[in-house]
Amino acid sequence: MTPPTPTPGIHHVTCIAGDPQRNMDFWVETLGLRLVKRSINQDDPGTYHFFFADAEGTPGTSMTFFPWEDMKQGKVGSGQVSRTAFRVPEGSLDYWEDRFEEYGVDYDERVERFGETVLPFRDPDGLPVELVAVEIGEDDPTVPWTEFVPEDAAIRGFHSVTLWLADPEPTMDLLRTMGLEEVGTEQAQGDTPGDERTRFAADGPVGKYVDVLPTIQGGRQGHGTVHHVAFQTPTDEDQRAMREAVQSAGLRPTQQIDRHWFRSVYFREFGGILFELATRGPGYTSDEPLDDLGGRLVLPGKFEDRREEIEANLTDVTIPTADTVEADD
């Protein structure tokens, strides 16, 4: 079988939150990401689906959330994405520590990892997140959003995800099948339970790293955990080839599912983590102008006919803007 086109890296990461307004306030105001899409969980239309990204919703920048208010607190453990890391410009971590102090964000001391400086913190639901200081080139595809955070500190898409796995070897083989290359190992630091961290790299400029750590620590899905991680398969042809490769590796991918802004294939990798393959298009501007992204509740396809019913069951939320936040102060 012809190997599939390697994935360029992470497309988006989807997580579970609790209170939707608290989630919105943190990711927009505190972290300075743009709400590029306000929609619903297409498998559970009584729940929001928020998409936070760079100024244009560039692939590789979207952190998305299902705020399931009634779900219990989760616990990160084996068979989960344990950390999601974002890129920030070199020299900006002092700014972020000051900002975390101002906003009361729970953060840890910086650590060095593969020659880069990492600032770990947690969102209000306890989700483990990291900022990694990197050089941002002039040709970088991400577009900083500067409503709350200046350009020289703004988050510039994903850096990496860390996978906790009881038996890492089959997943490491899968990552190689997907076109990532092993680029190094080092002793794990901080609160990670594994002895050795193995890093894999894709060839794209954003969200290119996947770190693997062995652990048998038990976990459970809930608030403050990752629901799934999506990898870029830019075209339908790329996705078909990757789906076939995944299936040939012994996994059970779904058929393609239309998610309105991209087309998706899902499967659980060998350790139980839900992976998604996502196309590059049509993109977030396919149903809203760039200037108005996130401004209204978008109900894909068949759900528009149920707008009145769906809106009645959703908690009202207010999107923070610099003007409204300043007025409240």
From TrEMBL:
<dbReference type="InterPro" id="IPR029068">
    <property type="entry name" value="Glyas_Bleomycin-R_OHBP_Dase"/>
</dbReference>
<protein>
    <submittedName>
        <fullName>Ring-cleaving dioxygenase</fullName>
    </submittedName>
</protein>
<dbReference type="InterPro" id="IPR052537">
    <property type="entry name" value="Extradiol_RC_dioxygenase"/>
</dbReference>
<feature type="domain" description="VOC">
    <location>
        <begin position="9"/>
        <end position="134"/>
    </location>
</feature>
<dbReference type="InterPro" id="IPR004360">
    <property type="entry name" value="Glyas_Fos-R_dOase_dom"/>
</dbReference>
<dbReference type="Pfam" id="PF00903">
    <property type="entry name" value="Glyoxalase"/>
</dbReference>
<keyword id="KW-0223">Dioxygenase</keyword>
<keyword id="KW-0560">Oxidoreductase</keyword>
<dbReference type="GO" id="GO:0051213">
    <property type="term" value="F:dioxygenase activity"/>
</dbReference>
<feature type="domain" description="VOC">
    <location>
        <begin position="157"/>
        <end position="280"/>
    </location>
</feature>
<dbReference type="InterPro" id="IPR037523">
    <property type="entry name" value="VOC_core"/>
</dbReference>
